[in-house]
Write a structure and sequence with these properties.
Number of strands: 16
Radius of gyration: 20 Å
Oligomer: single chain
Shape: globular
Distance between the termini: 36 Å
Helix content: 40-55%
Strand order of the largest sheet: 1-2-3
Number of helices: 12
């Protein structure tokens, strides 16, 4: 049996779990897969390993991850799937495993209220103090908010953790450039790196999704912040030759929203900018978000469409595309799905009845009245 990463495993698991109500065979296979994953949690803290041999049940972490630490965006991106699996299987162990992760995090001191990307599963202590709302951290924050929504807004602990984390992010990481663009920097050992990744662009949609539940009178402010992040991410596309966004863009050395390093100029069909446009359209109905989405569609068709599908591009600032000959799985699972929803009516998978996991697979809100019937929107069979 091959060692497997949480990301692909969860993508497959959530795909199976999405079929559970209709076909019992998928329910059985999902429970079996969940049970096979449980040995990953056999650590002194209960923080799971990143990698698991499904035959032996032996887990380990990436050797490059701060002395063998577990990664925030991996162990923090299990909550929706495991809560859903406990609900469907009747086995509370899945929910208990992810709730324990939250308990460990709650006990730890957070530097300036921030969550570092690395946590040692043996000692229960943070690794190096690197904080990112993009790669290595991103979906942890997404899942705090969505855990609250998925619980029919009864999970007050998740709600508090999300809004506290967002406040720390705004205080310590969010900055505005001299040209007026709001961006989310990265924090490394107390120093800011004025770089924003394409992955970080999901945060505009996340903040918009959570704005209605913001404490105090923060709803309007959070919607404005979400709109500013959406604008910045659109600018990262608009300022390239091919009108597709780079993997990361910087705000230093006199440049704004532009990739300055060759290894950051590629585009691999990522969904995060489109995801934010979709949420912003649904919550504001400002036509510019559909306009921006259509610009992306045109660029994808012109520059990424190849004979056998769609390909990533090695340099979005080049005069013509140099394809990498790879169509990532998330292109269909996320990018195209969010584009479809951007141009659909709001009652297709409405956000008060469904939550999208980090691979854009819809999971139903678990109603407090314990009914299992999801909302009958236009996508229902």
């Amino acid at each position: 049996m091959h060692t497997a990463m949480w990301g692909p495993m969860l993508q497959e698991a959530s795909r199976l779990w999405g079929c559970l109500v209709a076909k019992p065979v998928f329910r059985r296979k999902a429970v079996e897969l969940g049970e096979r994953l449980l040995p990953a949690f056999k650590t002194p803290t209960g923080i799971p390993w990143a990698l698991l041999n499904l035959k032996s049940g032996i887990g380990r972490n990436w050797p490059w991850a701060s002395g063998g630490s577990s990664i925030l965006a991996e162990y923090g991106t299990l909550h929706l799937e495991f809560m859903h699996l406990s609900k469907l299987s009747g086995n509370p162990e899945f929910a208990q495993k992810v709730m324990n992760i939250r308990k460990v995090l709650e006990r730890l001191d957070k530097p300036h209220g921030l969550y570092p990307n690395y946590l040692n599963p043996n000692s229960g202590q943070w690794g190096q103090h690197h904080v990112s709302v993009g790669g290595l951290g991103d979906s942890f924050y997404e899942y705090l908010l969505k855990a609250w929504i998925m619980s029919d807004k009864t999970d007050e602990e998740a709600k508090k953790m999300y809004y506290d984390a967002l406040q720390a992010i705004e205080t310590n990481l969010i900055r505005k450039s001299s040209g007026g663009l709001t961006y989310i920097a990265e924090w490394k050992g107390g120093l800011l790196e004025h770089k924003m990744g394409h992955l970080t662009c999901f945060a505009g949609g996340m903040i918009a999704l959570g704005a209605d539940g913001a404490p105090g009178d923060q709803t309007g402010h959070q919607m404005e912040l979400a709109a500013e992040i959406a604008r910045t991410c659109h600018e990262s596309y608009a300022r390239t030759t091919l009108k597709l966004g780079p993997e990361a863009f910087r705000f230093d050395g006199g440049v704004e929203a532009i990739a300055t390093r060759q290894n950051e100029k590629y585009f691999i069909l990522r969904p995060e900018v489109i995801e934010t446009f979709m949420y912003m359209w649904r919550f504001t109905h400002d036509p510019k978000y559909r306009d921006w989405g259509w610009e992306a569609v045109q660029a994808l068709e012109q520059h990424c469409r190849v004979e056998a599908g769609y390909s990533g591009i090695r340099d979005v600032y080049a005069a013509s595309p140099n394809h990498d000959d790879v169509q990532q799985s998330f292109y269909q699972a996320e990018t195209l799905k969010y584009l479809y929803l951007l141009f659909s009516e709001d009652d297709h998978l409405p956000s008060d009845h469904w939550v999208f996991n980090t691979e854009a697979h819809p999971l139903p809100v678990i109603r407090r009245d314990s009914t299992d019937q999801p909302h009958k929107d236009k996508t229902a069979a």
